[in-house]
Write a structure and sequence with these properties.
- By secondary structure, the protein is α/β, with parallel strands linked by helices.
- It has one domain: Restriction endonuclease-like alpha-beta roll domain (Restriction endonuclease-like alpha-beta roll fold, Roll).
- Helix content is 19%, strand content 40%.
- The protein is built from 4 helices and 11 strands; from the N terminus they run ββαβββαβαβαββββ.
- α3 links the parallel β6 and β7.
Length: 182
Amino acid sequence: MALTATLHTLRLALNDADRGVYETLDLRIARHPSETLPYMLSRIFAYCLFWETDIEFSRGLSTNDEPAVWVKTPDGRVKTWIDVGHPSAARLHKASKAAEHVAVCTFQDPASFQRTLSGERIHRGQDIELVGLPARLLAPLEPLIERRMEWEITLAGGELYLASAGQNLSGEITRTALVPST
């Protein structure tokens, strides 16, 4: 018998002072049975960092031709492709050809990810944004993950602040080009 996804509901107050975004969101996050908690958290943070009106989670791990999060235009074109983790150079090459804007969000060391892609052919690699998520949030956040959650996320000055279940967590977000300019 195949395992099914676990549905998490998240009531989220998003306060992005850097972009002037202040929204209350009701998210439904389907966690695939093979999806790790850091991957799911990366998807949620990516959604918040790039939030705009038409953003949505894709079908996720069950399809390999979609990013974790994306924004599509009304005519179905991919405006923003947001991957999480360490996608392959070939995947990023394809994404950069398919979307106007591509970003990768990772809890792992962004510099080591950049080194793994060194010498790889990636279309517009210098235009792909690499976002380093604060890894130190993972350990204290994992016990707070439930089927129903309420979070407040504030983004200001390159810092992410998260309040949930009486806990206040924070960490730095880094942003750089996936392939540094030469």
